[in-house]
Automatic annotation (TrEMBL):
Membrane spanning residue stretches: none
All copies of domain RNB, residue ranges: 46-356
Any Pfam family matching the protein: RNase_II_C_S1
Name this polypeptide is given: RNB domain-containing ribonuclease
Length: 461
């Protein structure tokens, strides 16, 4: 829905969010200078992969391209050659770019622009896998069998040349190799066998509308091309995770599943959105019935993500199996080094393991430090995202004071009752007196304040 922002509340609010959460506005001069002079430290020893027809697939507006792929068949296996931007070749430990990256941890996205992990001259320029130019990359070779199980078959520093920058919104089957859809099908088959939850949900987003300072508040369902492309990263990350764990090293992405209380709340959320969740179906089973193109289903998938205790990072620990509940597997992040600090170090460890070399002590030391750094970065990014949505909701509801909405109580705690409006899908809190989770009620909007990013409702029935 379009947000009418004639008084500029969104622009002011987004500026305030940047100030409150100390979102960097640019890069120090020494970091920019280091990025401008950055060189490929492995240029003389790279394998030549420029004859391989790699392509990228991302949102149309993306220019920080981490991944390019080429697919082939070998007997019953699909072979994925996955080229990942080789950030480790142009950023040295302890240099100004590295120091700044450790302070940032991740790229932060806001509706009016992003705060990149690395200077744009690298992340959107010389390190990005843009089409029709030679670029340094780490090429992982991953085999995917008929059951969807993936295995790391090699890793090498190479020079690639992407043939095309494909976009989720416009890509057609003729743009892609025939193995692309089949690989996605195989990865989904393996997910089903593992009992993975598959909760890469469409998200509520605040999207610029026409460059006139207006925005749309929308839930953008994942396109089929986006879901299929995610299967490539999943196959690679699972294969790399298994290889690192087998060699007693690595930094893993771990997550516990939603607790019983969270599942109960999700049942109430489903009710608020008009979804029928059979009593005898588990969360994973119900989630698989959802259609990502349906806005109500998309809203519920986002609620699943919010109900999770959140994913964290953990270094290899003897005697412990790192586990990601949503993936139902051991899992790493290794495919987005332009946007996440940790990926660069996981890639370096994977290169060592795949080539029979010891993992340097410096990498092991980094794995011990990264969980705290990434947790802080992820928390800040999440707070910024939530603040932007709170702002959007306040601007959207401004002027509708006194209007009444249908809502459902999703849970009750010491802060009151959390409610979800049935339309629009806004989450808020009210006094919890005499309310129980699952209760349907009607509420009236008391106030909507864009300055504080708060909306306040009262129960009317």
């Amino acid at each position: 829905m379009r947000l009418i922002d004639s008084e500029g509340a969104l622009a002011r609010g987004l500026s305030d969010i940047r100030t409150q959460f100390q979102v960097p506005a640019g890069f120090p001069a020494e970091v920019v200078a280091a990025a401008q002079s950055a060189k490929d430290h492995y240029a003389a020893s790279r394998a030549d992969w420029t004859a391989t027809p790699f392509v990228t697939l991302d949102p149309a507006s993306s220019t920080d391209l981490d991944q390019a792929f080429a697919l082939a068949r070998d007997g019953n296996d699909i072979v994925l050659h996955y080229a990942i931007a080789d950030v480790g070749a142009v950023v040295a430990d302890g240099d100004p770019i590295d120091t700044e990256a450790w302070a940032r941890g991740t790229t932060i996205y806001l509706p009016d622009g992003k705060a990149s992990l690395y200077p744009p001259i690298l992340s959107e320029g010389s390190a990005s896998l843009l089409p029709d130019v030679d670029r340094p990359a780490v090429v992982f070779t991953v085999r995917v069998d008929e059951a969807g199980n993936s295995r790391l078959d090699g890793a090498v520093r190479g020079l690639i040349r992407s043939r095309a920058k494909l976009a989720y919104e416009t890509v057609t089957p003729s743009d892609l190799s025939p193995e692309f859809t089949e690989l996605s099908r195989r990865i989904a088959l393996a997910e089903d066998a593992r009992g993975a939850e598959r909760v890469d949900a469409p998200e509520q987003e605040l999207v610029p509308d026409g460059g006139d300072g207006q925005f749309d508040l929308v839930i953008l369902p994942q396109l089929e091309s986006e879901q299929q492309n995610a299967a490539l990263s999943l196959a690679a990350n699972l294969a790399i995770a298994d290889a690192l764990f087998a060699h007693h090293t690595g930094l893993f992405r771990v997550m516990a599943g939603p607790g019983d209380w969270a599942v109960r709340r999700l049942r109430h959320t489903a009710k608020a959105l008009g979804l029928i969740w059979p009593k005898d179906a588990t969360l994973a089973q119900f989630e698989r019935t959802l259609d990502g193109t349906n806005p109500s289903h998309a809203a519920f998938r986002s609620a699943i993500r919010r109900a999770s205790p959140g994913a964290t990072y953990a270094p290899f620990t003897p005697g412990a199996v790192p586990w990601h509940s949503a993936m139902a597997a051991t899992y790493v992040h290794a495919t987005a080094p332009l946007r996440r600090l940790a990926d660069r170090f996981v890639i370096e460890a994977a290169l060592a393991v795949a080539n029979g070399q010891p993992v340097p002590d410096t990498l092991t030391a980094s794995f011990a430090k990264l969980p705290e750094v990434m947790a802080d970065a992820d928390n800040r990014a999440a707070q910024v995202e939530r603040a932007a949505l709170d702002l959007a909701e306040a601007v959207m509801l401004k002027g509708r004071e006194g209007s009444r909405f249908d809502a459902v109580v999703t849970d009750v705690d010491e802060r009151g009752a959390r409610i979800q409006l049935c339309e629009p899908p806004v989450v808020a809190r009210i006094d919890a007196k005499d309310l129980l989770p699952g209760a349907a009620l009607k509420v009236e909007l008391v106030s909507a304040d864009a300055t504080t990013r708060q909306v306040r409702f009262r129960r009317v029935s």
